[in-house]
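name: query_chain
kind: protein
chains: 1
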Amino acid sequence: MCYFDYQTFKKIKKIKKFFIYFIPLFLILYILFYAFTPQSYFKTPVVLFHIKKGYSLKTISFKLYKKNIVSNPYLFYFIGFITGYSRYIESGTYYVSLNESPASIYYKFVNGKIATTKVTVIPGMNIFQIAMILNEKHVVKEINFIKASFNKDILLSIGVDKKSAEGVLYPDTYIFKINSTSKSVLKKMFNEFKLKTKNIKISYKDLIIASLIIKETNGKKDMKTVSSVFHNRLDINMPLESDPTNIYAKDLSIFKKCISNARYKNNKKIINNINNSVRKNIKNKNFYLKFPVSMNPSYLNIKSKYNTYKNYGLPPSPIANPNIAAIIAAIHPLKTNYLYFIATKKGKTIFAKSLNTQNNNINKYLK
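structure:
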């Protein structure tokens, strides 16, 4: 004979009801807690995370986990799946860390809050120096930027009808996206140049002279007087004998030797044998070209159109990127009889009208 225990049945029913409602509620609360709570309260480094076009939500979740950016890839994936975030995630490079909640990370990905960095280009920097900074800031690879700066097709596409972008990349402070394209960076800097010089009638000759002035003065007050020296020498067909042009000639020779070898990306030995022009510090297959920063006596005999000791007239292109002050100085030099100048150890510029006076100044201030 079977007896039905009503009281036990009620207890079991209550327990079932409790689990039916409690477990889903617990799961929902746990997921919400995970989604909106920082994954770590200990300070963790911010890292760069790159999402390529076509990455699936699963790929993104597990790549984040492998980089120690999310603590649970399955929950991160589940949140994206049930909310439909995966349809709106934008490709690009982002700053992320464990100190963020998954929801805040998704917010960045969905709203395209791509990582940016501030880059300051100092007046007088050339393409090679700008490329180095851009590389260090993860904006664009050094070698790619240099190559693009001499690529006629890329230059024409942004409106530069010259052999290189040298001279038309305006020195200023910029905000660039991490992992930008060389073309976009060049375009932004050239647009700034056009904006700054829109009310100035400037020839390519003026731009070349301005680049010499900015390299010789480092932005000091003697720009127009230095400009007069270059103009005076050009007027009497006297070699300019400007050290920065010969250093630039060496820069170009190093770059040309590097790109002339099609295997430079994959052969470390070849790179290190190119006149010791590559740094030992190689990261992420990103080779850093080591360019000279000061004049070497051997540069006096370098075979180049940029050698202003051997050639008369101006070099074929600017050797740096001048600011407005240098450009104006190139267009409007002072009227002087100076043919020489030196920079003292204290940074003062001393001018001379004759070689004899120049030699006396050298003995007085530099020896």
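note: The radius of gyration is 31 Å.
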